[in-house]
Amino acid sequence: MKNDFRARNHPAYWAFIVHRASGVLLAAFLPLHFWALGQALHGEAKLETFLRWTDQPLVKLCETMLVLLLAAHMTGGVRLLALEFLAWRDWQKSLLAAAAGVALAAGLAFLLNVV
Amino acid sequence: MSDERLSVRTQVLLWTAQRASAAVLAICVVVHLATIIYAVRNGLSAAEILGRTRGNAAWAAFYTLFVAAIAVHAPIGLRTILAETFSWRGRALDITVLAVALTLAMWGFRAVYAVLI
Amino acid sequence: MSTLCVAVWRGQESGRFQEFDVPRRESQTVLDVVTYIQRSLDPTLAYRFACRVGMCGSCAMTVNGRARWTCRTHVDKVGESGRLEIAPLHNLPVVRDLVTDMTDFFDKWARARGQFQGGTTRKDEFARVAPDSPARRLADAAIECIGCGVCYSACDVVAWNPAYLGPAALNRAWTLMNDARDTGNRARLAAVAGDAGCHACHTHMSCSERCPKQIAPTASIAGLKRATIAAALRGDLGDG
What we know:
The complex is a heterotrimer of chains A (115), B (117) and C (240). Helices cover 82% and strands 0% of the residues of chain A. With 115 residues, chain A is mainly α.
């Protein structure tokens, strides 16, 4: 028999889900990101055309999500590095709260700057 | 059937490479996020982006390191996810992941070249 | 007297929950509930227990979705709604009803080189281990494990990666790594490294969250991860 959500419902497991989901989504986004920057090979105008396409509100919303995912994957990753490489203390949950806080702050800062 | 497994030493070195690249990426991402949030405050324009990056050796070095770290970090994570989600293990998986790493690196370096040269 | 509605797993891997009404009593444990069912309602119910006081580690089951020692879990704590769901431990083959086959779990202790390997004979002096030495303290933090299988049942990596040694076996290996008398660490490091060993751990911390002894196997596994890096860089993990 396998575990269900009742066994998994605790903060560190939620942190894992965020880390894995953000990792997969960021990896899937990378080719698109690299393609977009590659537009500059065809001249500044090409890149400009793409950037004007990104001005749509829906694209801006997706970008905010991506910033949030990137920040969450980064802070969650720093948390994992701390847990794996620093001496074990009883501050795991504070670390988790700090990681979530910094990620949300980065997402918010981006959102406030684009609207 | 390609059931051949990497040696335990290689497995551990892959894990170590993922953690080492994670440490590099942590710094890169902080710089990247700060740049993004700074750059979007008046809207993005191609002229502004390329004005910042073109011919700038510091940005060239930074983004080259960034792409290299990504090309190490992401495929190793992908390898674990594929193994755990689809019970896909062995040589075919390792070759696929290596191909992903090379593709990411190629595409990434192409993008860096595009905005820096 | 109020009653408790108890859903109990019957059968093997495939099976179903069977409901029983059990009289609610003061200071009742989940093990008391299971025992009542077996003695008064259905003598064919299979379950495992021995000491009833949290020392032997044989009565672990899945209670309302979480792995627990049934003898040390009061109904007050888990059955507020008047309902209990009792299933065998997860991630282990079910023999029948609430009994699992723990063979894999214990075989993995052996594979992680969980046996003490001494280098002295009875003719030698006693080893002197200072109680406050760093290694002794690290061993102390992890040594109280009684092998109940709760962490193994809580761990998702065990299910996703069947070769994974699991939290208990790795925690045991870590106590021996910190045992000044043990001489088997070189082989032990090779045994616990890699995709089926400590490096498979994702720090879900479900093991540490659920351990009835408040041990943090995640911390022990992190210790092994660090210890194996140096060995891997030296090419000292047994297989080149």
